[in-house]
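## Example pair
The file below holds two records. Each record gives the amino-acid sequence first, followed by its structure token line.
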Amino acid sequence: MDVADARAEFRQLESQIETADLDYHQKDAPTLSDAEYDRLKRRYLALAEAFPELAADASRIGSVGAPAASGFGKVSHAVRMMSLGNAFEDHDVEDFVAGLRRYLGMAADAALAFTAEPKIDGLSLSLRYENGRLVQAATRGDGAVGENVTENARTIEDIPQEISAAPEILEVRGEVYMSHADFEALNDRHLQTGGKIFSNPRNAAAGSLRQLDAEITRARPLRFFAYSWGETSEKIAETQIEAISRFQSLGFQTNPLTRVCDSVQTLLAHYQSIEEQRAELGYDIDGVVYKVNDLALQDRLGFRSTTPRWAIAHKFPAELAWTRLDGIDIQVGRTGALSPVARLQPVTVGGVVVSNATLHNEDYIAGLDSKGAVIRDGKDVRVGDWVQIYRAGDVIPKVADVDLKRRPDGAGRFVFPTRCPRCGSPAVREEGDAVRRCSGGLICPAQAVEKLKHFVSRAAFDIEGLGAKQVEQFHSDGWVREPADIFELQTNYGSGLQQLKNREGWGEKSASALFSAINDKRSIAFARLIFGLGIRHVGEVAAKDVALHFRSWEALATAADLARPAALAHRAADEAELQERQRAQSEGRRARISEVRKAAISESSVSSDAQAAWDDLISVDGLGPSVALSLSDAFANAEERAAFDRLLAHLEVIPPDAPAQDSPVAGQTVVFTGTLEKMTRAEAKARAEALGAKVAGSVSKKTDILVAGPGAGSKATKAADLGIRIMDEDSWLDLIGRV
């Protein structure tokens, strides 16, 4: 990397870090996870070290926090409020201790004690007492100047208004936080009253302390742990642990998990012990802070520009946390899939309070992946277990590990249900399917509701005023059981004793608007109809491909009926293939796949017409046997077919426009990436499809053209590696003809 490239990246990182500091410290609304922030800061500092000329006018090298907000009076700290250096791995702690010994000229075996205490995830606060009376409270701000929040701090029960037997001047420093229980109660109240919902207790605590109206702060249950000090008129102790004890004697809350450790090994052991207790503490912590215990040694070690040499924060992995599994619930989805969900003792992971995690399927619970391979060293998941939760970015939390040492006595293996918990129908797991599915179809209320939600979704019928909440209510009241019922709402509930306009939350105007919106969708594009039916594997793209190929409901239904025998033969061949693979693996020989499939299909005696219909079905670009089987199953199911027919009686199905055959992109696969400046992504896709092109979401060997706007990333790199034609937006418009 040359200096120019380094400078460009350095300035970009600087801007990102500055924005993140303001979001976290001043706005109490962080937009980056702790892990992502730490990654950016490490890269920023590494560039500054590699290119010293960049550090000369850098704004975030010696920065702490963010400037005080304009709504508060400003307080200059008599003693600067520092931040802490971070350790992320055990070897970082070893390096920290070794570095202290070198700085102090101490032998490797010389006694050196530390305190180790939980790092509270809250808001730093400095309390100034003069002659035993609280006279000022200030946030950290940028370390030199903070916000005057004295009146708000006076409302916190853990903060004494007066202390006795204290120095004439004493600044007690610590962390304001909110317990898990109080956080949950606050969000519940706000949910009922339409107030702000906080993502985690830290944001709730910071937002509550930094209210311009102290009465709002008083109404929110904040807590305070004391652990440090600023200006004092006299020495308060000889060691860190004695200072903590003195704070306790003065009436402050101090953390009971603070310990004195005499080696790296005992520091790491206490770190592990605290991490194991994390979910049971009742408040958020994000690591353990180590401080040299001897205050005389702290004075000798001194400070760097923004951090003390004698302390470090050993952070927990930001995406990981241990907590207890309180239960396993089974949810039933739109396609009948039984999905197990872990109910957890709430714990903050990656800046979000997590109380649920996915368990995927019954194999995952048993310690196996979708191919039968061992995961988590084969450890199964049981109710009562202590589990490690993983969450990165917006990924749904999942169980990464199980601590067998903490498994409670009598915890039995989880027995996955073989009947649907909602309707009692058999829950069947077909050969080759990792998921067990309810066979109840539309008689299953869970499937019915989810199918209805899908039916009214944006990419399907998109009926204005009829969303998931309304669907749930109408289904619960027996008004809407299947899609056809939506188009009978006005007939059944537009007049008479039970009228929509008389329901809570509705009126004559809103009811009329809904009926009008429903009527507007009686004419519907064929592709939207297919997608809206919620057939397994048939997504938005597949629905468009099917619509373009068959062009009418009648043609699709005829093809599905005619191809049914071949579809069943194909499924039998799949099952025979799976059994042959399993036998071959156990016998240590090569599987005879083609022979087995041919024999299975031959035994099915499929007619030439049925085979031709099946071949036509799977020839639809992008469909494949799995999607074709799902279509066949849906049309062959008597209850679903009857529901389809009842729905079609209310609709006019609009066939898709015939794609252009003589355009320069007809039959080609196009991918759009980056920012399009002359049209929206939806418009670009629609125009490409109208010209006979297929628009894909990812680059593959089948891609013909990549249209790359500003900000194009990995897709452009992959396209270049594959030798795919790449063009900018202007070149694309020149190719297809500008409008």
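Second record, same layout:
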Amino acid sequence: MVQDFSWKTGAVTLYFEVDAADHVVMKSVRSGEVSRDFARPLPLAEIMFAGTGHWIACDRLIHTTVGKELRFVSYEETVVDKLHRLNVNMKDEESCACVQMTYEIVEGTSVIRSYVSITNEGVSPLVLESVTSLVLPMGSVHSNASWTHEWVLTEGHFDWLGEGRWQERKLDDFFPMLQQEMTGHDPRGEHAVVSTGAWSTGSMAPLAFLENKDAGAVWAFQVEHNGAWRWEVGNNTVDGYFAVSGPTNINHAWTKKLDPNECFTTVPASFVLASTQQEAIANLTQYRRACRRVDSTTTQPRIIFNDYMNTINGDPTTEKLLPLISGAAEVGCEIFVVDCGWYDDSGDWWPSVGEWLPSKTRFPGSKGIVEVMDAIKDAGMIPGLWLEPEVIGVKSPVAQKLPDSAFFQRNGHRVVEQERYILDLRDGSARKHLDDVIDRLVNDYGIGYFKMDYNVSPGSGTDYQADSVGDGMLEHNRAYLDWIDGIHRRYPHVILENCSSGGMREDYAQTSRFQVQSTSDQQDYRLYPAIAATAPVMVAPEQAASWAYPQSSMNAEQTAFNINTTLLGRFFLSGYINRMDKSQKAILRHGIQAYRRFVQPVIEQSVPFWPLGMPMWNDSVIALGLRDDSQSLITVWGRNVNEAQSIAKLHVPQYQYQDICVKPIFPVTDEFTPWSTEWNSEQAVLTVRIPPHEYVSRTFQLTGEGGETTYTHC
């Protein structure tokens, strides 16, 4: 007998069907006014044990024999502290595996988190080779082979210095007409995106979008994991699908042995259905805030100065730092971070990391580094330090003090990557070492901010006391997150920045645990706007720390261009302020004042939007906006535009058919020529004229004034 059941939470409803053979599938999803029905549903979970495989030969996450044979047992709904949860219980009779598919929604959001738990209820071990965290059809309108015409995939390409490069491709490009229906079989191919090692965004984003503009429907999905992952989209003949997982055997050398009564839970995934891509990102932004794992009093952005970028570059000394501390305090910074090298006596800080004791040669006074920390505090700022906690340099004394069990190992040898060993945080001695370091730095020096870096990746993982190298990697990833949670429990008011060679770990498992996310190590201020403008796709705007590094050699427009790159995020400043003249310092102060007046009060409630669409790396004009119920803030960068490119038409649909007030907020001093603007309320387009042949930028505040056609330049 066919059973139907549904789960409704707020604006989201998931509909399920159990057929006469007790197979359970999701039949449709509704989110607000948008819904997708599935002509060919898929199993809720796809699983491969050793000795099972696919029922159609392929390398995909779907079409597994175990997934096809899962039988429905029961479902239950719970609500605990605004977390709504649906568990769908299934069983595979052949393996005696009990499978629980979990969906969760935090009240007030429309993003669904999902994960799978597998318990071995048999008498023999089971060996897992892959498990999905999420599988869903796309819900195409045309239930035939022409469905590929409907959908566009947007995926994010990442690289060191080149983060957040989002590209659109039609699914026709991936899945040509094959006439597979003539064979009676589904096709075998897929577009799979895979991340290996521990740089979760080292090459691609664990987040993507599928958009059907004709249907007004967008799927966004992400992997919430700080290690190896895979997502794929594919052709299921009459519809497309997307599937998400953590590590797999085929991609990551991952297997996991489940003894009788043992349970394994996948890494989480999450998804949302919306009407547009920008609405999906707004929903993700609300979800990211609702699911943070940090003290809420530490999330409001403060103005940060860091001594590294285009400034000291890893060579701090008391002599160099004291003038920078004075300069940072003079312009209004609130946090001062001493970056890498503070612990090194040799002059080569890279292979000496790990002991985390202050250098005596760099800080030669009787008080040592305390002199610098006291100067930061006396200037009214919070002192911060750079750490790369997960590595031990091969020349560090700690490399010999800790046992081999504290490190990643393969084939009986410690893993070495660019003169570093990698700590394995499954090991108690490794955890104790790092806990002792944090305790000492907080209690002895009053550190209130840590910049956590991670500049090497350990490859496939560790085979020491693990079922596979991928298993060792996954368990280390989870142990690292637990270690971060431990810092928050002991020191809830300490602010943590996630810097992994810039933006190499911008996954939500990490960003949910860090108040600040470094977006890049990019050192060319002309390139950075493309990174800064796309950063809110991955993180909440108030987390996105994009560098501004103005220098005394820059003119006023170049200085303002730098400041605008950080203005609509977490204010993140570097540069030799002490070498600047009064007029240059005045621009910095005006930028910080604009941030405090216009951005700080609203950024934690705002959602991002892109008035020119998602920027491409080489775009001459780039724009990023933040909006809430009362206003919008828009930054526009002109990157050496020619005459034809100098007129930018910003689409701001939230003000259609309204009067608006357009107010420049930075820069606005007499040395800057105002940009002319013109508003078309019917088209909801603000035309901005950009001076050609320069690198220039302006930030505007837009507020609605009511009415229908009048435009006011405030």
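Notes on the second record: The CA atoms of residues 282 and 607 lie 5 Å apart. The radius of gyration is 26 Å.
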